[in-house]
Amino acid sequence: MAHPRPAHTHPHHADHEHGKPLIRFDHASFRYPQGPALEDITLEIADGEFVGVIGPNGSGKTTMLRAILGLMPPTTGSLQIFDCACQNLRCHHRARIGYLPQKRTVDPNFPITVHEAVLMGRSGAIGLWKRPGKADLAIVRHALEDVGMEDYDDHPLGALSGGQQQRVFIARALAQHPQILLLDEPTTGIDTTTQHNVLDLIQRLHEELHLTIVLVSHDINLIAPLAERLALLKTRLYALGSAKQVLTKEILARVYGPQILTTDTGHVIVADHHHN
Amino acid sequence: MVDFLTLGFLQRSLMAAVLTGGVCAAIGVFVVLRGLAFIGAGTAHAAFAGVALAYLLGGPPMPFAIAFGLGTAWITGLLEERGRMKLDVSIGISYTATMALAILFIGLMKTYNAEVYGYLFGSILSVTADELKLTAGLAAVVIGLLALFAKEFFFLAFDQEMAEASGVPARRFFFLLLTLVALTIVVSLKTVGAILVFALLLIPAATAYQLTSSLHRMMAYSVAIGVLVSVAGVLLSFQFDLPTGPAIVLLATGVFFVAVALSPKRAPKPALS
Ligand SMILES: Nc1ncnc2c1ncn2[C@@H]1O[C@H](COP(=O)(O)OP(=O)(O)O)[C@@H](O)[C@H]1O
Ligand SMILES: [Mg+2]
């Protein structure tokens, strides 16, 4: 006998219906030759979720994204993406993950146009042996429109401002038609107005295209209002949950030390703030 | 100067110049963009050492050159990948070690062999029909693979980790690129020689780099420049009885400096926000 499902089975997901887990860290640790970067991470990210990853400099945020891309196998534990161990991630899996890397300084003299840079995002989807077709060019145009850069098609990438380059790289990630979008500090190095435009764009993509988004930032105040869940990292996963659950004085003090301040309006101020 | 095009050897030389100039300039785009210049130099010396060993043992020079060139390119590539040591140090070592090997092999030969030196300085005016066929064959392989995987190689040149993350098997393409660099160098040994091939890899691509802000146009310009200076170099050297390799290289260098002077990239950059 089939019973009608009660409306809110899971209190945590009361306001959002998310699909099955796409990313599953299970007691996973990652290390560089110089030392551990992430330890004993257990975290599931569901299809259509928006997770913000926060933590001080060097806490392993970038490493977490590199791991999801399959660029770093876990030393212990496991990491599954699309139900596939990240060590065995195939090219067609990777093609479904859009990535905005942290280090995006472009050699201003590198000969590449905006169009060429965005078209590169199609490489995985087009596959080996084939050349980009009409459909790919249309997708590139569309991605550039999404980020408001359609008038810069034939411009040299190196001649654009930091914020414009940022939008081009987001367009490249979008041109992949990804299911998962990984964004590493998408707002650093750009002016406040552009920052808000970029964040609005990300929010819109999440809502309209139901993209699964993992956004990394050291700026807690910027992502707290956007993300459905926050993951607070410092090599280990210190806290996971809604902004209310994670951004408490006790938890923040444990990660950031006594320099942390929370204002009445919920703003977080880290006194020792030498990030870049 | 009217009917020299009917001369068989000159036709062959011009064909060889078109092929070598074109292939070097095409692969040179990736050498310049990916910063592999010194891998090219080390590989050229290694290929020459292979030729010297072939003459010492009485074997065929080309397979030896290919084996030595490929071996060195791959080893240097592995070192770069591991990043254990500063790249200029590891390349400096392979660069001098392979040259030392070449000198050792030449020293071990009982007799002076002028042919070996042909591979060091090139002798495009004495290219035989068989050598031309080999050059054409290798050139077809290199150009064919470059054209087939153009989008992968461009992505790799722009950002290897990003290419990997987007679903391009970047590591395999990096080694394929090293392989093509080695083959290109071997193709060019007989025509421009182990010392000057380096210039033909770098200069047309570096010149094109000055002239455009598009990857595809850089490729087109580079190949055009490579072919033109090679052909012009052969004609000049024939007309004025000059050694061909230096004629090509100095011509290319001249074109490079003109391009630097005219480069649109010397315009002031807008401030980055
Ligand atoms: N390529 C690398 N090689 C060696 N160690 C690294 C590398 N990248 C990061 N690390 C180290 O791993 C730790 C986590 O770095 P990262 O993930 O970049 O942190 P975050 O992005 O939070 O600033 C740091 O201690 C950093 O020094
Ligand atoms: Mg980081």
Written overview of the protein:
The complex is a heterodimer of chains A (276) and B (273). With 276 residues, chain A is of the alpha/beta class. Chain A has two domains: 175 residues, Rossmann fold, CATH 3.40.50; 73 residues, no CATH class. Chain A has ten helices and twelve strands. Chain A has a six-stranded mixed sheet with strand order 6-7-8-3-9-10. Chain A has a four-stranded antiparallel sheet with strand order 2-1-4-5, covered by helices on one side. In chain A, strands 11-12 form a two-stranded antiparallel sheet. The longest helix of chain A is centred in the last third of the chain and has 18 residues. Chain A is globular, with a radius of gyration of 19 Å. The N and C termini of chain A lie far apart (58 Å). Chain B is mainly alpha-helical and 273 residues long. Chain B has a single domain, classed as ABC transporter involved in vitamin B12 uptake, BtuC (Orthogonal Bundle). Chain B is 80% helix and 0% strand. Chain B is built from twelve helices and no strands. In chain B, helix 2 runs antiparallel to helix 3, helix 3 runs antiparallel to helix 4 and helix 6 packs antiparallel against helix 9. The termini of chain B are far apart. Adenosine-5'-diphosphate binds next to helix 1 of chain A.
How are the elements arranged and paired?
The complex is a heterodimer of chains A (276) and B (273).
Chain A lengths: L20 E12 L2 E12 L3 E5 L6 H8 L7 E6 L2 E2 L5 H4 L2 E4 L13 H7 L2 H4 L7 H13 L15 H14 L4 E5 L7 H18 L2 E5 L3 H4 L5 E6 L1 E6 L1 H4 L2 H8 L3 E3 L5 E3 L6
Parallel strand pairs in A: 3-8, 3-9, 6-7, 7-8
Antiparallel strand pairs in A: 1-2, 1-4, 4-5, 9-10, 11-12
Helix pairs in contact in A: 3-6, 5-6
Chain B lengths: L7 H27 L2 H21 L3 H22 L4 H22 L5 H8 L7 H20 L1 H9 L1 H6 L4 H20 L3 H19 L3 H26 L3 H19 L11
Helix pairs in contact in B: 1-6, 1-9, 1-10, 1-11, 2-3, 2-4, 2-9, 2-10, 3-4, 3-9, 5-10, 6-9, 9-10, 10-11, 10-12, 11-12
